[in-house]
């Protein structure tokens, strides 16, 4: 009986640790996204891109098709949003954050741009991965 109680206690402890870690992961991911909102809203596109994996393997899938690489993604943002009037003020609405596997989550949500040249809204699905201790977007599909 003592062994069963020990096993139950250990299992409960492991579940609590896993839930705490998942909650911490989600908070850290949301923090990255808050920093992105602020940077974008200041037309600091390089600052916004700090949330992305700085790699040629980064993938962005949007209305113009597939873009590969951090540098090309930044170049596309600079071309599409050259001024504060174009970038406007960004806000995210998060609909779901789910663990895919260890150190990987998807985030589904909506983006809203309030801007003088006309508002823009859409949906996104991004994949975050913990790389070198930091949460980075490794794939982004926005519409």
In short:
With 143 residues, the protein is α+β, with helices and mostly antiparallel strands. It is 42% helix and 37% strand. Strands 2-1-6-5-4-3 form a six-stranded mixed beta sheet, covered by helices on one side.
Secondary structure layout plus pairing:
Elements: H1 2-41, H2 45-49, E1 59-62, E2 65-68, H3 70-80, H4 84-87, E3 89-101, E4 104-114, E5 120-131, E6 134-142
Parallel strand pairs: 1-6
Antiparallel strand pairs: 1-2, 3-4, 4-5, 5-6
Structural account:
- The structure is a single chain.
- By secondary structure, the chain is α+β, with helices and mostly antiparallel strands.
- Helices cover 42% and strands 37% of the residues.
- It has helices at 2-41, 45-49, 70-80, 84-87, and strands at 59-62, 65-68, 89-101, 104-114, 120-131, 134-142.
- The mean pLDDT is 91.
Q: Helical content, roughly?
A: 40-55%
Distance between the termini: 57 Å
Enumerate the spans where pLDDT stays under 50 for 5 or more consecutive residues.
none
What is the structural class? alpha+beta
Estimate the global geometry from the Cα principal axes: globular
Radius of gyration, in angstroms, nearest whole number: 19 Å
Strand tally is: 6
| Individual helix count | 4
Strand content: 35-45%
Round the mean pLDDT to the nearest integer and report it.
91
Largest sheet: 6 strands, mixed
Spatial strand sequence of the major β-sheet: 2-1-6-5-4-3
Along the chain, the helix and strand elements come as HHEEHHEEEE
């Amino acid at each position: 009986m003592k062994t069963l109680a020990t096993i139950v206690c250990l299992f409960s402890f492991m579940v609590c640790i896993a839930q705490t870690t998942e909650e911490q992961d989600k908070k850290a991911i949301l923090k990255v996204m808050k920093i992105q909102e602020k940077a974008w809203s200041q037309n600091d596109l390089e600052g916004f891109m700090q949330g992305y994996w700085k790699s040629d393997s980064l993938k962005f899938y949007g209305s113009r098709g597939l873009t590969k690489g951090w540098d090309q993604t930044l170049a596309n943002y600079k071309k599409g949003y050259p001024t504060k009037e174009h970038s406007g003020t960004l806000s995210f609405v998060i609909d779901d954050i789910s663990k895919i596997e260890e150190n990987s989550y998807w985030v589904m949500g909506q983006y809203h741009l309030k801007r003088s040249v006309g508002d823009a809204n859409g949906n996104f699905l991004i994949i975050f991965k913990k790389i070198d201790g930091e949460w980075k977007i490794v794939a982004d599909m926005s519409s």
